[in-house]
Amino acid sequence: MNLKKSASFLLAVLLLSSLSVTAGGTETLSVTLVSNPYTIEKDQYHIITMEGFFTRGLPGDPALPQKTYDVELPYNTDLQTVDIQILWEDSEEIPGLYEIGPSPLPAADDFFSATIQNGKNTDVYSKNAFYPARCVEILRTYQTRDKKYVRVQFTPFQYNPVTKLLLLNQKVKIKVSWTTTWMKYTAPPGPGIGYVIVTTNSTVNNSVRLNAFKNHVQSQGFTVYTVTETQYGASGGQQRAINIRNWLQANWPILNIKYVLLIGDPDPDDPTVGDSFGDVPMLMCWPNPGSVLDQTPTDYFYADLTGTWDSDGDGFYGEFGQDTVDFGPEVYVGRIPVYGGDYATLDNILNKFINFTGADTSIMLPMAISNYQDEHHAANGCVAGWGRTDGLDLPQQVITNITNPAGFTNYVMYEQSGFTGRGHDPVPVGAFGYKAPLTNANVINQWANDYGIVFWWGHGDATGAWRKYWGSAGDDGDNIVEDAFCSTTGQDECVWIPFLSSGDITVDMETFTFQASCENGYPENANNLQYSLLKKGAVSTVGSTRISWYPIGLWTYWGIIDNAGIGYTYVWFLVFGQSAGEALYNGKNFLTNPWGWMGWQNLFDFNLYGDPSMYLEGPLLRPPPEGEPPKQVNLTRSICPLANYTIDRAKDLLEEAKNLLEEAKNAGKDVSGIELVILKAEEIIEKARRYCLGNNCIPGNYLGLLAIEMLEGVIEDLKGLL
After folding, report:
1. How far, rounded to the nearest angstrom, does the alpha carbon of residue 671 sit from its chain's CA centroid?
2. Which residues pair with 470 in a beta bridge?
3. CATH of range 193-344; options 3.30.70.100, 3.20.20.80, 3.40.50.720, 3.40.50.10390
């Protein structure tokens, strides 16, 4: 198993918890970052691969190994004052000359400007200087519930594109500093874990299954609250969205709210045009400030309750570079749309949630072509240069890293139609995991097999997921794939066909979807594909409200916010034991954004239709944190073998950490804080083992992963001391 994972400095968490801080004073913490073994291979460019690091960068900039670390800060930290200083670097020049290629560009004409030539940012590649200028930088600060963090990124290699030299920083010591304030956190009174249903009085009065669903949620151990305009206020439109968030901000600490289910019409309000809007609206955001074309509705507004979504006070929310959205979720949000007072459909969906017993351990991966090599189309100005981009590269990583270790069966479809022998062939039948051609009939027929997860890649609009292939009668014969804007015939040379449309699935399944397409969750359209599948065909759906962006060329999981990367992380977290709400919002918060406003748009885009507390494995009965596992528990069907593997891995790391601790002690190092972390990790491993003994393997797996994360951070710190 080769799951890449961002490590948090849990050593810093423990040390900071024991600091005596003075309000208004400046506090500091020193951390040593250490590089890992690496390889350099030559293809078109030299590619550096480092264990535990992603090879990536800003679009068009040199692709170098990078790793992010979340350092926890005291709760009374003023996040605007956080800074880092590099104290020293242990560096060496790598012998030889190297051609380091650029990081992929998003599929947007915005990045094809005068500074981007042949995919390279000439502002960087023409400069006789090491890039990046600093090997450690702050990416962002954020808060999630009662925790505050600074995310730092470590880039061990620095590259001079003029001299072709590489510099490796093997170890770097940094000092993190911050100022504290008089803010004091008061723990919630402890009424249990809160689950809030945000809806309207009309829904409460007309739904005949809402009370049954509330009872079902309560049976899972939650304290359930129903909130309507009686509590959050009668205003409509944008102000209603603000009022709902204001209520959540005021009450999540008091009621210990973890999950929020929105029930109502999600149609957002655009206050600039006086449009219609729903009774429980998404918030309309402007990730690309000033651009009407890039307005994006989102429910993220209700999850990040500590970010300032309109910090410049101009009435336009979620503007990249102008507002301080921090993306750390305080609560996990799902939604059931209700259009036109259709309470019968709402009740059917609620019944589906109540009766859900667990998804099948199987995944279907329909993969379409996004663009061909050197395709000419309006977005690139009819100029060659885009690398071929299709779903061919995704299934192998999903299956190898996520679903096979969890015991899933897999079914993959690729594009098999189109011209052959002219330089732009369809996907070969020998492609990884290939089972059948991607067609509408095949997708519908396979859906009947009740896959636990369906994760697709394709183009999209509000009511369909689309495939395209080069094969139209409008082809002008020049062996260049062209759209109607570029073709000499004025016709699109590609055939566009939906491989799934709203209403295609007529039988209910216990399926979780991630729809890596544009606009499938367009909330203004009551027939949007994401909602259509929630009604019939799935139990939980994630789709995009507007355009979602993908990287051009060979796809790989590199820990950023491209649409398939969000989907990969969602499926990974879902399979490894997080609820649907946790998997989506923790996943998005986990990823790095090198794409500016387009990254923000992707983060806003993908929203959950479904119960945010729902697990892939079905209802979860949790034992008391310190008590014996209950005798009657949900026996998971795939997580238990995975959890046992996770615990064994944690035990191996524990042994390694203890050996390194002993070496550090013998070397006279002060490791008292590290030793406490190791003891805590050992306690967590024992608790995970106890969960698994009771066949309650989702929390067992979660705790095992937590122990691994702690121990990986400890081992890295101990290696830095030795």
Report:
1. 35
2. 494
3. 3.40.50.10390
Q: Which two tokens stand for residue 242?
A: 């603000």
- ∠ CA 220-580-598, nearest 5°, is 150
What distance in Å separates the CA atoms of residue 64 and residue 50, rounded to the nearest whole number? 9
CA-CA-CA-CA torsion sign (410, 414, 416, 420): negative
> Any residues with CB less than 8 A from the CB of 164 and at least 6 apart, and which?
97, 98, 99
Total residue length of the chain: 722
User: What average pLDDT does the chain have?
Assistant: 90
Whole-angstrom distance, CA of residue 596 vs CA of residue 287: 9
CA dihedral 77, 81, 82, 85 (to 10 degrees): -140
Residue pair 47/135 in contact (Cβ under 8 Å)? The answer is no
Residue 328 burial by Cβ neighbours in a 10 Å radius (0-12, 13-18, 19+):
buried
Q: How far apart are CA 546 and CA 298, in angstroms?
A: 10
Is residue 528 within 8 Å of 521, Cβ to Cβ?
yes
DSSP-derived secondary structure letter, 59: B
CATH pick for 7-180 out of 2.60.40.3800, 3.40.50.300, 1.10.357.30, 2.60.40.420: 2.60.40.3800
| Phi, psi of 520, rounded to the nearest 5 degrees | -60, -25
pLDDT per residue as tens digits for the range 512-542: 999 999 999 999 999 999 999 999 999 999 9
Closest CA to 4 of 712, 720, 717: 712
Q: What is the DSSP string of 174-195?
A: EEEEEEE-S---------SEEE
- Identical topology for domains 193-344 and 358-609: yes
Q: What is the DSSP string of 312-374?
A: T-SS-BS-TTTSB-----SSEEEEEE--TT-HHHHHHHHHHHHH-----SEEEEEB-EEE-TT
Query: Could you give the C-alpha distances from 650 to 13, 578, 627, in angstroms and in order?
Result: 19, 19, 22
| 7: three-class secondary structure by DSSP | strand
Residue 527 CB contacts under 8 Å (≥ 6 apart), including other chains: 462, 463, 502, 503
- Whether the per-residue pLDDT at 701 is higher than 90: the answer is no
| Proportion of the chain in helix, strand, coil states, percent, rounded to 5 | 30, 25, 45
Query: In the numeric block, which tokens belong to residue 461?
Result: 């609009």
DSSP 400: I
Is the pLDDT score of 16 beyond 50? no
Q: Which residues contact 670 (CB under 8 A, 6 or more apart)?
A: none
d(CA 709, CA 628): 25
Domain at 358-609, CATH class: alpha beta
Q: Is 537 left (phi over 0), alpha (psi -120 to 50) or beta?
A: left
pLDDT score of 405: 85
Structure tokens at 495: 């055939």
Query: Which residue type is seen at 272?
Result: T
Whole-angstrom distance, CA of residue 237 vs CA of residue 282: 9
The reply to whether omega before 699 is within 30° of 0 (cis) is: no
State the pairing for strand pair 120-121/193-198: unpaired
User: In this predicted structure, what is the pLDDT of residue 623?
Assistant: 39
Backbone angles phi, psi at 714, to 5 degrees: -65, -45
Contacts of 304 (CB under 8 A, 6+ apart): 325, 326, 327, 328, 329, 330
Please state the φ and ψ torsions of residue 23, each to the nearest 5 degrees.
Answer: -55, 135
Residue 628 pLDDT greater than 50, yes or no: no
Asked if residue 359 lies in contact with residue 336, where contact means CB atoms within 8 angstroms, the answer is: no
| Torsional sign, CA 236, 237, 241, 246 | negative
Q: Which among 669, 661, 673 is positioned nearest to 11, based on CA atoms?
A: 673
- Sorting pLDDT into bands at 50, 70 and 90, what band is 265? very high
- Domain ranges, ordered by start, for the chain: 7-180, 193-344, 358-609, 639-721
